[in-house]
Design brief:
mainly alpha; Four Helix Bundle (Hemerythrin (Met), subunit A); 12 helices
């Protein structure tokens, strides 16, 4: 006798569960720096002369020995000093320092960085391909451009800081601050996480940027048509009720005004005590400057002052005309009176 199967009813759960989708593909980690610590280990194993291997470890692997760590700390200190010197050269308070002092500091720093660059060239010269790849890597180019302006000054025998093309080269010396990052795994991981986050959110960031630009354009257009003023045929620009050129002569000018208002309070505090902080024209100004009531006004004449002077001159001409007309009437009355007295005397004589 066979037993009949027992039919069971499926009981559906009333609880909600969350499904975790499996990732379709792994996130690719970018290689932001050409030479990482793991790659340095591979290159170190391929270097055969012992002195070159030790030199490579001393310069490229701060954790290999105590001497390498001290060289790394000294290198970071030189980078910080170089950046501080570059910044202080532009501060007006340090313009009184003699040029020979700055030249001595720059010569010392350039000499040390040149020695470091030559030493790294020897460390990477195990093969021509390795030397070529390092010299044209990010850090190799930065190391070369950081010392190139100094030697160009020696070759040209003149100060190249006043030339714009050489100022661009001088700016590259500040990029040396990125070199310590390659030896810090935490910093490298943070940079990679930031890069991946921006890359994964690029569509949302693009949509947000597009929305901000559109809102800025709309409100700048409304501000332009509301505040541009009236057209002046003589000045060939829009003027406000005071006779000054309008701050909103165009939609881009209105957009700059809207963006500038975000930083106007900070800029006003920074430039309040500066003698050269007052804006030269209302178009470039994003705030109304405060004027000290005890200081006399400046000698330059703006359009508002010219319009006021023209109005005052017209009023003076009108008053002078009325005075001249009144004096003319008075002279006419005196002439008539004198003429009447003369006729009366002639009658008396006759």
């Amino acid at each position: 006798m066979t037993s009949a199967p027992i039919e069971l009813t499926r009981v559906s759960s009333r609880f909600l569960t969350e499904d975790h989708p499996q990732p379709q593909h792994d996130i690719e980690r970018p290689d932001l720096f050409s030479f990482g610590p793991s790659r340095d280990e591979t290159i170190l194993a391929a270097i055969h002369p012992e002195w070159r291997r030790n030199l490579f470890a001393l310069l490229e692997q701060p954790t290999s020995s105590q001497a390498a760590f001290m060289v790394h700390v000294l290198h970071i200190a030189l980078i910080v000093i170089s950046a501080v010197v570059t910044v202080l050269e532009t501060v007006p308070a340090f313009h009184q320092v003699k040029t020979s002092v700055w030249f001595g500091l720059e010569t010392s720093l350039v000499a040390l960085f040149t020695m470091e660059y030559v030493a790294r060239c020897f460390a990477w010269s195990g093969t021509w391909m390795g030397l070529f790849r390092w010299m044209f890597s990010f850090f190799g180019i930065i190391d070369f451009l950081s010392v190139a302006p100094y030697y160009l000054e020696l070759i040209l025998a003149q100060d190249t800081s006043v030339f714009f093309r050489f100022s661009i080269l001088r700016m590259f010396r500040l990029l040396r601050v990125f070199r310590p990052f390659r030896s810090n795994n935490t910093v490298l991981l943070t940079i990679e996480v930031m890069y991946i986050s921006v890359r994964q959110s690029q569509h949302a960031l693009f949509a947000l940027g597009f929305f901000v630009v559109m809102v800025l354009t709309v409100f700048s257009t409304l501000l332009y048509f509301a505040e541009r003023g009236t057209w002046d045929d003589i000045l060939e620009t829009f003027i406000n009720t005071d006779g000054d050129p309008s701050q909103f002569a165009s939609i881009p000018a209105a957009a700059c005004f809207v963006l500038g208002r975000e930083f106007s309070l900070v800029w006003e505090r920074m430039t309040r005590d500066s003698p050269h902080s007052e804006p030269s024209s209302p178009i470039t100004s994003t705030f109304i400057p405060r004027r000290d009531p005890f200081t006399p006004p400046s000698g330059d004449l703006s359009n508002r002052k010219l319009a006021h002077n023209q109005t005052e001159l017209s009023n003076q001409i009108t008053e002078l005309r009325s005075i001249v007309e009144a004096q003319g009437h008075l002279i006419a009355r005196l002439a008539a009176a004198i003429e009447g007295k003369g006729k009366g005397r002639q009658r008396d004589v006759e």
